[in-house]
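Bench notes, afternoon.
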Amino acid sequence: MASQLVGPNNEMSLNHVEISIHANDAEAKQRQAIEEHDGIDYSQRAQWLRAAVLGANDGLVTVASLMMGVGAVKEDIGAMLIAGFAGLVAGACSMAIGEFVSVYTQYDIEMAQIKRQREVNNANNGEREKEDEKEKLPNPFQAALASAIAFSIGAMVPLLGAVFIKEHKIRLVIIVAVATLALLVFGVVGAVLGKTPIRRSCVRVLIGGWMAMAITFGLTKLIGSTGI
């Protein structure tokens, strides 16, 4: 190959090689720029995204199912709204406490792992690296707050949908309708932010929500009809 570059066409061959190298460098830089521009670490979103999306879905499904269960045995709108509001408050507190305990446990485990790695390496990584490690650790307070707020937002959907409807049967239909629409929205938002298939996400949350409302309504209706 080297002998082919020697001769009258030597200059042309070297130029061709040089242009090819420059072209490859330009393509590599372009790819690197695209990766840096879209270099979102979606794994870092997992903590708050999981707490927010799951919290909103739980709030919506829990309160909607609770109101459907009460509506299965009572036509009084006051009873449904009180049950829904109680479910909102209790659920938000439960979600916040549960998320705080869970994430704090994860935080302790990761902190212990970092300390063990430092002892094994027996090296001083500097203050900057310590700050980076702390930033990557899960935040229990952030997760708890996000979970409580998201649960409350989701729980408000069926409450607002039912508060102005006087007719009992129409109220039940409205609760299912607004819950279905909200589940679709939550499914799309979660899929877009997490870069997951939208259709699969929407089908999953819809089936889960419908099953929860149907089971709660059916079992409560059954128990109410037996006079227990």
